[in-house]
Amino acid sequence: MDYAATGQEALSRIAGASDLDTLEALRVEFLGKQGSISGLLKTLGKMSPDERKVEGPRIHGLRESVTEALTARKDALETAALDARLESETIDLSLPAPEQPRGSVHPVSQVMDELAEVFADMGFAVATGPEIEDDWHNFTALNMPESHPARAMHDTFYFPDRNEGGREMLLRTHTSPVQIRSMLDVVKHNPGGAPLRVIAPGRVYRSDSDATHTPMFHQIEGLVIDKGIHLGHLKWTLETFLKAFFERDDIVLRLRPSYFPFTEPSVEVDVGYAYEGGRRVVGGSGDAPGHAWMEVLGSGMVNRRVIEAGGLDPDEWQGFAFGTGVDRLAMLKYGMDDLRAFFDGDVRWLSHYGFSALDVPTLSGGVGTPA
Ligand code: PHE
């Protein structure tokens, strides 16, 4: 029998199969249980040994070439299917980039990054605490017991329900509760205490709203705990910080005695400034001609009772703390005059006052180069 013609026909039909289903149907037709080539193989059993010697290799050869052709065609069809899929799922990376970069870093984020950079250089770590606080961390531990008049001055947002511990819950009115949390945390890891240098930037809330007050605003807290800390350390730290932040050497501070329940003594810090081109520019003494003083910070030596609430022995550990408004610092440095615009989300304001995401504040590169 002439298998060449059968083989030719099978191979050309396999080569012509245009999809995997057709190919599978051909495989069944030739090699399946009832397949034509399988049928030929069965005829070998009925042949005489001499006949089989001749026909055997030919039939097996036919089966082999058909099997190879099926495999080759299957590979080709699968490759073509993959190519088609890759073709249809490509992204055109050659699309032009937007002419103007969209989006910018908000001045509050920028100033917080600048502050973290300035303080990191002085060895301060960044600490955080919850915005939903309890009245013990926000007030009591900071030497403001329940009846303390200073509590009333904070215009606090309270939650209707107490927490599991029976404490009243509130939106923190300042970042000072992070002082307590940082001390408790350091004691947990170092019983007996350890030096501590942290800043705590974050959101705070007071029920207050006009051109210079928004119900949510940003503060940054600083806390240093160590042995033998005194007011001189506080003054040097604030002076170094303000000079680095405003990027000027002529920053002059005025320390005024003040009162905060959590510091004793307490000091309010003013900086000298003058009007230049219609806006406040810090620098020089507030007593110099054309200059005035402006309050920028609250600070003081950490009250003994606060150190105790933080789990430390005030005879062994002393410290200073300060707190200031991040939004106000941003306004002073970058010349905005309405606080409310900070939180309006107006794209025109954001693109005017925003910073490039690529312009990361560093001491070497300058902590605040406007976009
Ligand atoms: N927590 C004070 C405020 O919100 C600021 C402050 C912080 C003062 C630390 C002294 C020490 O006004």
From TrEMBL:
PROSITE patterns: AA_TRNA_LIGASE_II. Its main location: cytoplasm. Binds 2 magnesium ions per tetramer. GO terms for molecular function: ATP binding; magnesium ion binding; phenylalanine-tRNA ligase activity; tRNA binding. Residues 109-370 form the Aminoacyl-transfer RNA synthetases class-II family profile domain. CDD domains: PheRS_alpha_core. It comes from the Bacteria. SUPFAM superfamilies: Class II aaRS and biotin synthetases, tRNA-binding arm. Keywords: Aminoacyl-tRNA synthetase, ATP-binding, Cytoplasm, Ligase, Magnesium, Metal-binding, Nucleotide-binding, Protein biosynthesis. Gene3D superfamilies: Bira Bifunctional Protein, Domain 2. It catalyses: tRNA(Phe) + L-phenylalanine + ATP = L-phenylalanyl-tRNA(Phe) + AMP + diphosphate + H(+). GO terms for cellular component: cytoplasm. It is found in: Cytoplasm. The keyword Coiled coil does not apply. Its cofactor is Mg(2+). Belongs to the class-II aminoacyl-tRNA synthetase family. Phe-tRNA synthetase alpha subunit type 1 subfamily. Tetramer of two alpha and two beta subunits. NCBIfam families: pheS. PANTHER family: PHENYLALANINE--TRNA LIGASE, MITOCHONDRIAL (PTHR11538:SF41), PHENYLALANYL-TRNA SYNTHETASE (PTHR11538). This is Phenylalanine--tRNA ligase alpha subunit. The gene is pheS.
